[in-house]
Amino acid sequence: MMHSVARLANMLGAVAVALADRLPTDSDSAALAVIAQYPGRTVEELRQALALSHSATVRVVDRLADGGLVRRASAGHGPALSLHATATGRRRAVRQNAQRADELKGAVSHLSAAERRALEPALETILAALTDDPLGRSICRLCEAGPCRGHDCPVELRQRELGHPPPEPTPLG
Q1: What is the DSSP string of 15-63?
Q2: CATH of the domain at 80
Q3: Between 28 and 159, whose confidence is greater?
Q4: In terms of domains, do 69 and 132 share one?
Q5: Rg (CA), the chain
Q6: How far apart, in Å, are the Cα atoms of 76 and each of 40, 52, 73, 81, 116?
Q7: Count of CA atoms in the C-beta half-sphere (13 A) of 84
Q8: Cα–Cα dist 104/23, whole Å
Q9: Are residues 82 and 144 in the same domain?
Q10: If we measure between CA atoms, which residue out of 130, 126, 124, 138 comes closest to residue 166?
Q11: What confidence category does residue 54 fall into, taking pLDDT thresholds of 50, 70 and 90?
């Protein structure tokens, strides 16, 4: 079977769409994941992580705060506010994270051990190449902090190469 770059790219896109359809990827879910794993970040830092406008990010934070999932506090410098998940928000973030992990593990469970070993370095290469944001926040906004943090994370390695080591997350589980 001949493998073309176009066919491979098309299949990768289809996988991305299929997984996105199964995962909590809306702005509110993504924001809650970021806030729960990186407490104390500002609205501006959240905006960068979500790749949204400032006003759209404020609306997301307003919805999460109105729902009792997030609280705002003084960031200690100027008018900036730090964001923190409430206990209810952390529980929801943990559930979202577990759902995401189950779906992703289910997807790769169809691969043999040899296929998983072959896929891992390919994904590492793709992720490193896509890390054009020195802070990598957009790519990893839904990632579970534990499995590939540190020296195993291709995004974090690329961030370090760019001179921007990422902040330490607060594990959800």
Answers
A1: HHHHHHHHS--SHHHHHHHHHHHSTT-BHHHHHHHHT--HHHHHHHHHH
A2: 1.10.10.10
A3: 28
A4: no
A5: 17
A6: 10, 24, 9, 8, 46
A7: 10
A8: 9
A9: no
A10: 138
A11: very high
The identity of residue 42, as a single letter, is T
User: Of 110, 128, 154, which residue constitutes the final position of a domain?
Assistant: 110
Predicted confidence (pLDDT) per residue in 116-129, tens digit:
999 999 998 998 88
Does residue 104 sit in the same domain as residue 118? Answer: no
The per-residue pLDDT for range 139-153, each reduced to its tens digit, is: 777 777 677 766 688
Residue 70 lies in a domain: yes
In this prediction, residue 153 carries a pLDDT of 83
Q: Where are the alpha helices (DSSP H) in the chain?
A: 5-22, 27-37, 43-50, 54-66, 87-108, 113-130, 154-161
Burial 76-88 (b: 16+ CB within 10 A, else e): eeeeebbbbbbee
**What is the token pair recorded at 59?**
């609306």
Give the whole-angstrom CA distance, residue 108 versus residue 133. Answer: 27
Number of domains in the chain: 2
For 59-80, write each residue's pLDDT tens digit. 999 999 999 999 999 888 778 8
Domain containing 137: what range? 111-165
Cβ neighbours, 10 Å, residue 147: 9
